Amino acid sequence: MQPTPAVQNGLHLDAEALYASLLNGVRRLVQDPGTVLVGVWSGGAWLAERLAKDLGLSQPHGVISSALHRDDFGSRGMAATTDATHLPFEVDGRHIVLIDDVLYTGRTTRAVINELFDFGRPASVTLAVLVDRGGRQLPIEPAFSAARITLPADQRVSLARADDGRFQFHFERV
Asked: pLDDT under 70 in the chain at which residues?
């Protein structure tokens, strides 16, 4: 069964079509054979897993959590994802393409970069996202985004993965 594209206030987001665009964009970013993909827990991790497979990368992909480096740690507390970081390769000197599903304020990206540097010093970190919704609070910009959208601050868009591995978006008010 095909997932239906998410529609919110006339905005139409087809996650599978955007994934195809992300795949082509990440393909251009993975120039060095030692480049690895690291997905931000959870939507970015799903994307990195599928991208690594579809790109036929010989290096395993990694998963990284923002939980220990979030600037709102005091109000959120310890999340269940604190053990989600899994980097099955040396970080030092490695070219890393950081994959996330939705980029908004940049705070999660900052947190995962801090987490990444706890494991070593990469040669480079390049950010690729499925959706950039603007609203940045930090000077963070993706090298590639499959879509750029505008949403009111009280709306959230998140990526979901069906049992068959296909992606779809969900909108909600926060």
From this structure: 1-11, 70-83
